[in-house]
Amino acid sequence: MPIAEKRLIFANIDQPGYTIDIDCYLRHGGYKELKKALTMKGPDIVAEVKTSGLRGRGGAGFSCGMKWGFIDPTKNTKPVYLICNADESEPGTFKDKQIIYKDPHQLLEGMIIASYANNVHLAYIYIRGEFTLGAKILEKAIEEAKAKNFLGKGICGTAYDLDIYIHRGAGAYICGEETGLIESLEGKRAYPRIKPPYFPAVLGLYMSPTIVNNVETLCNIKHIVAMGGAAYAKLGKPNNTGTRLLCVSGDVEKPGYYEFVVGALTLGELINDVCGGIKGGRKLKAVIPGGSSAKVLKAGERYKFKTKKPDGSMEEKELGLEDIPLDFDSLAAAGSMAGSGGIIVMDESRDMVECLANIATFYAHESCGQCTPCREGSLWMKKISDRLTHGRGHPDDVDLLKNVADNIAGRTICAFGEACAWPVQSFVTKFRNEFEAHALGNGSAIRAKTGAVKT
Amino acid sequence: MSTANVNRVVDPATQTVLPEKVYPGVDDGHHAPPALPKGFEAQADELITHYPVSKRSASMPLLHLWQETFGYISPAGIDWIAAKLGLQPINILELVTFYPMFRQHPAGKIQIKVCRTLSCALGGGYALCDYFREKCKTGEPDAHGLALSPDGKYSVEFVECLAACGTAPVIMINDDFYENVTKSRADELLLKYT
Ligand SMILES: Cc1cc2nc3c(=O)[nH]c(=O)nc-3n(C[C@H](O)[C@H](O)[C@H](O)COP(=O)(O)O)c2cc1C
Ligand code: SF4
Ligand code: FES
Questions:
Q1: If you count Cβ atoms within 10 Å of the first and of the last residue's Cβ in chain A, which end, N or C, has fewer?
Q2: Among candidate residues B51, B67, B98, the one where a domain is terminated
Q3: Between β-strands A236-237 and A256-261, what pairing exists: parallel, antiparallel or unpaired?
């Protein structure tokens, strides 16, 4: 029996008859939580979010309540801004798009509550440029919400004012990094800022305190207000609460987007029970569990986990790849990360060198170019993995590739440095024999392996 | 390929802009003011109101507006946007050269963007891109990866992950997404847009 989904955020998505207009949203209880929130005090909402244990869904998994806690509206002399990160460009991730295209008012309601809680009067949605229709849907939703007085001046008869605007990106992945995003919103190149001192909570948009949250994180706020922080925290387990949108792509029978309580199922259950197993009855070879920057996990690997027994003592367990529970801490313990929730599955027929070359090409294209290790390193990692794929490698390329990656992480302005180094380090370490075979010219031919297009 | 070559020279001592010299064969930075369609400027002004704190923030929205109207960002467009926002043309040009979606030369009337990234590659994205190039009889891709058909009707290019990886391979034609694209679907789509 596959484990049942728990659809909180996706409750209405793809339901027959559910449309994106505000009337449909109101018929389904929309904006009820906003009205409830407006009867509460801002700091009390922040406290509920802290209690809920909600961690950011954009990639880093940082505590949302703590992030909001950095901003003290009573001490600020500058205005506070909220930005919704709708850049969704981490390869393998396609959850925020579902919300934007199919339930835009849920995002707006979450944003309005978050803005009210943090005394924000001007908020932006930074949406990736390719979501042209998505931007139009959100603009229409904003108009509808204004007409019904959920946005604008004196929201729902209170003294609270808020404006939300849409800002479109233009095809650069680095705009997903929050300080790059802020620069971009200021009308500049999306060059990430160095932290310290430019923590968004202190020196964010227009050098004012700014909260940047992912689309899914902001939707969760609505459900936290509905359920109360303590009840929300009962979903999942401590430090891994709530539900998580999971996006599965690659070699499974039923790829798609799903919503589960955090940690409710294992990677194996997700792949075999929910997604119908590996395509064509083949065997699993590798999984990237949290967007393309997450370190790859190899079939057959064993991981050591420390778990707390009910009596408080620690116990060490060994788990296989398919037994890893899908929560933040377990994936971190397995040496990877839950990241953006994008799970890419590769079967036994795939050439790992080619898969890495594909990822390396992405990062080489997307480096913003500010830091030498990232700009040059990402290009070299592409070049070397590419020539290995095409059978033009040198015998010492495998070590060289790993060496380039080892010299990026920790030496850059933003976390893109890690994001581009981790796949290389993990692929080369775990599939070293394949890389060596390629370096000696024994690798399998490439195009043949990356799926032919169906006629 | 045209590049907006804006030759403004700053005096290092005084930090003032020196009078412009005109070099033969070099873009002198002066561009005939474009004929703007009706309502264009009003739309631009409306977009600027979305940024009450800093007009400069409207740079990207104005670039999008320009590209949607004219198909690409010309040197005249860069000058117009810069003047509108009280910025130097370089402040706009540096955005055009940074953000992949902005173009300095026209793409096809029918723009086909094929996702190149891993999930789509596993699902046949590379083969699909080849198929489109073949069907649209494009030449080889240029330095920016854009392959144009000789009549300028089609352009085919790779783009990075389009956030629809579960339904690979994924493409966009102009502003529309298409997922699970097969060869026969590709044929249908080409007919639809012709
Ligand atoms: C290179 C890079 C790309 C990122 N891309 C995204 C993205 O597309 N969407 C997103 O929500 N967060 C992205 N992030 C994470 C953001 O920087 C930020 O942590 C997040 O938006 C915070 O929101 P959260 O706390 O709600 O997760 C990216 C981070 C890095 C380093
Ligand atoms: S790490 Fe890379 S992407 Fe980040 S600021 Fe440096 S060069 Fe830019
Ligand atoms: S990899 Fe093609 S849409 Fe994500």
A1: N
A2: B98
A3: unpaired
Cβ contact (<8 Å) for B166 and A94? Answer: yes
Q: Is B26 on the interface with A (CB under 8 A)?
A: no
User: Which residues form ligand 2's pocket by a CB distance below 6 Å?
Assistant: A 174, 192, 367-371, 374-375, 412-414, 416-417
Mean pLDDT throughout A128-148? 98
What digits encode the pLDDT tens for the residues A321-360? 999 999 999 999 999 999 999 999 999 999 999 999 999 9
**Which residues, other chains included, contact A142 with Cβ-Cβ below 8 Å and sequence gap of 6+?**
A108, A151, A164, A165, A166
Number of domains in chain B: 2
Residue A177 CA from chain centroid, whole number? 11
Contact flag B183-A453 (C-beta cutoff 8 Å): yes
Respond yes or no on whether the N-terminal peptide bond of residue B33 is cis (omega within 30° of 0).
no
Are residues B179 and B121 part of one domain?
yes
Residue B10 CA to residue B8 CA, distance in Å, equals 7
Do B127 and B187 lie in one domain? The reply is yes
**CATH code of residue B183:** 3.40.30.10
From chain A, pick out residues whose CB is under 8 angstroms from the CB of B121.
Answer: 358, 450-451
pLDDT of amino acid B9: 55
Predicted local confidence at residue A314, as pLDDT:
84
Decide if B3 is inside a domain.
no
**For residue A245, what pLDDT is reported?**
97
Looking at the structure, do residues B93 and B116 belong to the same domain, yes or no? Answer: no
Chain A residues with CB-CB distance to B122 below 8 A: 249-251, 344, 346, 350, 355, 450-451
Secondary structure class of A381 (helix, strand, coil): helix
Whole-structure pTM value: 0.93
pLDDT digits (tens, 9 = 90+) for A391-405: 888 889 999 999 999
How confident is the model over A397-420, as a mean pLDDT? 97
**A87 C-alpha vs ligand 2 centroid, how far in Å?**
17
Cross-strand bridge partners of residue A249: A344
Copy the structure tokens of residue A270. Answer: 């997700």
Q: Work out how many CB contacts closer than 8 A connect A with B.
A: 171
In a domain, B22, yes or no: yes
Report if residue B7 sits inside a domain: no
Q: Which two tokens stand for residue B105?
A: 């030369």
Domain annotation covers residue B2: no
Q: pLDDT tens for residues A221-261?
A: 999 999 999 999 999 999 999 999 999 999 999 999 999 99
Name residue A236's beta-bridge partners.
A241
Same domain flag for B52 and B126: no
A370-394 exposure pattern, b = at least 16 Cβ within 10 A, e = fewer: bbebbebbbbbbbbbbbbbbeeebe
Quick one: pLDDT at residue A307? 75
Closest CA–CA distance from residue B162 to any residue of chain A (Å): 7
Give the H/E segment covering residue A155: none
Q: Look at residue B73 in the predicted model and tell me its pLDDT.
A: 96
Kindly tell me if the per-residue pLDDT of A309 is higher than 80: no
| Site from B59, B73, B117, B161 to mutate, A interface, most A CB atoms within 10 angstroms | B161
Range of the domain at B55: 15-98
pLDDT on residue A448: 42
B126 has a chain A CB within 8 A of its CB: yes
Which range is least confidently modeled, A109-123, A311-325, B75-89, B153-167?
A311-325
Classified as helix, coil or strand, B115 is strand
Label residue A65 by pLDDT band (50, 70, 90): very high
Q: What is the pLDDT of residue B126?
A: 96
Q: Does B167 lie in the same domain as B137?
A: yes
Whether B59 has its CB under 8 Å from any CB of chain A: the answer is yes
Q: Which residue among B101, B116, B184 places its CB closest to the CB of A171? A: B101
Nearest to A187 among B58, B163, B168 (CB): B58
Q: Do B166 and A189 touch (CB under 8 A)?
A: no
Domains and CATH numbers, chain A: 22-234 (3.40.50.11540), 237-347 (3.10.20.600), 352-450 (1.20.1440.230)
